[in-house]
Prior knowledge:
Blueprint lengths: L5 E4 L14 H12 L3 E5 L4 H11 L5 E3 L4 E3 L9 E2 L4 H11 L4 E7 L4 E3 L4 H7 L6 E3 L11 E6 L4 H12 L4 E5 L6 E5 L4 H12 L6 E5 L5 H6 L2 E4 L5 H4 L4 E2 L8 H9 L2
Amino acid sequence: MSKKYLIAIDLDGTLLNDQKIITPKTRDYLNGLALDGHCVVIATGRPLRSVLVYQSQLGVDCPIVCYNGTMTLDYHHNRFEKRIVKFDREIVKAIIAEVGIENLDNLMVETESSIYLLREDEELNSFFWNNGHTIVYGKDFDFDDDPMTLIFKPHNNGEKIKRKLKTAVEKYPDYNLRFWYDSYYSEAFLSYGTKRHGLEHIANCLGIDHRHTIACGDAENDIQMLEWAANSIVMKNGEDSVKAHATLITEQDNNNDGLVDALKKIIG
Length: 268
């Protein structure tokens, strides 16, 4: 293989099957790509602590894009400076005040050192792996730093609260809101803090030709990187709105190693 690719892979619904496991076939293929000199990047909404576990399972030590692009780093080799994008904490407080705590079942804000939650939330914890970290419960949002995440869970999933959330967030320039598919949760994101921006940073720092970039995903938070990459793979199980951004849709889903066969069509 003469070309060395930057291969960005989402976790949930893409690299992981529905049991949140990397199957042996997918693991062995991606490990082989990394050993062959390709840059296999996990690009996810999950935090760094989660990515490191899955990197270890894959046996790769490539750069990481986490928190949906607000943090990009070369954790293992430090070949380039960490890129981090944060929300303004005063704007976050203003958004929360406008939405109203009384309208929220839960709220999650994470800084580099602390996690702020209204209450314990096993569904969020299964995704963010908060156990063992500094967690502040309650309504006292005296953040210790500008945060990297802002996630809402209202009491109901009606159109009225959705409009209220979207209005409160998007009144600020570059602040956007997206809803998690088929759930009550939504998250704020910055126009310049997406997975695309993380991948651009890696490609520029490591001198990777854009023609040799591949993005693999399944959900709305993958769209920016799918639009950016020269080759865009969307999983068969992906959302229909996301498939519109694919140059290739996998023939199999995330439970049947769909990623492997699609990558082989591009890389070999």
